[in-house]
Amino acid sequence: MLCYLLPVLLAVQALAVLEVQVPDLPVVALYGMEATLNCSFSHAAPFNLSAVSVFWQLTDTKRTVHSYWGGQDQLEDQGESFANRTSLYASQLGAGNASLLLKGVRVADEGSYTCFVRVETHGSASLLLQVAAPYSKPLVTLAPDSNLRPGEEVALTCVAHGGYPEVDVLWQDGHGRNLTDNVTTSLVANEEGLFNVRSVLTVALEPNSTYSCRLANPLLGEEGHASVTITGQNMVFPPVALWVTVGLAVCLLGLLIALAAVCHRKIKESCEEARAAKELEEAKELEEESKTGVGR
Ligand SMILES: *[C@@H]1O[C@H](CO)[C@@H](O)[C@H](O)[C@H]1NC(C)=O
Ligand SMILES: *[C@@H]1O[C@H](CO)[C@@H](O)[C@H](O)[C@H]1NC(C)=O
Ligand SMILES: *[C@@H]1O[C@H](CO)[C@@H](O)[C@H](O)[C@H]1NC(C)=O
Ligand SMILES: *[C@@H]1O[C@H](CO)[C@@H](O)[C@H](O)[C@H]1NC(C)=O
Ligand SMILES: *[C@@H]1O[C@H](CO)[C@@H](O)[C@H](O)[C@H]1NC(C)=O
Ligand SMILES: *[C@@H]1O[C@H](CO)[C@@H](O)[C@H](O)[C@H]1NC(C)=O
Ligand SMILES: *[C@@H]1O[C@H](CO)[C@@H](O)[C@H](O)[C@H]1NC(C)=O
């Protein structure tokens, strides 16, 4: 008996309920912007606005977001965090549009909202609000005191801030290959609930390598990316030691050249002296010979 009656009972109840429609998919609102939470109801007969009641509330806590009845907004019991941020489209209410305009969207606004409407009969429906904030352009840096010697391990850090929700950080090498090992990513929320992300990749350096950091926001998709390229040029011996070595080598070479020049002159001088002495002797001998010759 009940089995036959139940569908009839349900059908009767359905007739008594006002049909209220909200989006099935979550509504994505941009942080700091305004969002319209759509809610529409269909009422066959024309109605007097003063006979319409609209209640928007948080589904979980039943906290009042916005109320309207008796032909005007009723905000005495409105939740404090929504003060001065909500309104209905009054001129659209007569056409069955009970949508809520929410201004200055905050991270804390995220959640489920119920739209409750009464015109003779009543009905309600709930929708999900999701908040999204784009991250700043990421910045990739190399630890400043790192030794850029091939094979050495270095830490590359990628930072971005002020985004929501939690971002996925993907590191790739120059060939677009995913680097998932030796990556540490941490997120910290600021007082507005927005995240700052910091991801550290530790790699063994190879010459001519590029590392890029890509951010993917689950709600906004691919956001920014940044990369760092380590060319062969950065990768030198420890620079101070190199310049000291080059300097010393130049000094030594100069010294050797100077020494060689001095030696060369000395040798030449002594040779000339010897030759001069010899010539003098020969001249003397010649003179003596001529003297003897004359004496003879
Ligand atoms: C709200 O409803 C209007 C009209 O049906 C539609 O154009 C708009 O895309 C809806 N907005 C959202 C956020 O669902
Ligand atoms: C309700 O009216 C507002 C303002 O005209 C509009 O933006 C919104 O899309 C309307 N919503 C629906 C469900 O028609
Ligand atoms: C709407 O209701 C109010 C109060 O009940 C009444 O004064 C007004 O004349 C009505 N307006 C219409 C168009 O029926
Ligand atoms: C809302 O606006 C009124 C009047 O402009 C102001 O006095 C009040 O402080 C505001 N409340 C909040 C929470 O901003
Ligand atoms: C890299 O990772 C991303 C995200 O996890 C994925 O979509 C992509 O297919 C991966 N690419 C390769 C080459 O594995
Ligand atoms: C990760 O680090 C370990 C230890 O430092 C190293 O042996 C390994 O090769 C690294 N993995 C990658 C993919 O670089
Ligand atoms: C590094 O890259 C430059 C330019 O892309 C190329 O000319 C050079 O041969 C590369 N060196 C090595 C060691 O791969």
TrEMBL record:
One of the Pfam families matching this protein, by short name: C2-set_3
GO MF entries: signaling receptor binding
Subcellular compartments: Membrane
GO BP, one annotated term: T cell receptor signaling pathway
SUPFAM superfamilies linked: Immunoglobulin
Superkingdom of the organism of origin: Eukaryota
Record's signal peptide: 1-16
Chief location of this protein within or outside the cell: membrane
Entries under InterPro entries matching the protein: BTN3A2-like_Ig-C, Ig-like_dom, Ig-like_dom_sf, Ig-like_fold, Ig_C1-set, Ig_sub, Ig_V-set, IgSF_BTN/MOG
Keywords: Immunoglobulin domain, Membrane, Signal, Transmembrane, Transmembrane helix
Cited PROSITE patterns: IG_LIKE
Domain Ig-like: 7-126, 138-229
GO cellular component: external side of plasma membrane
Transmembrane regions: 240-262
Protein name: Ig-like domain-containing protein
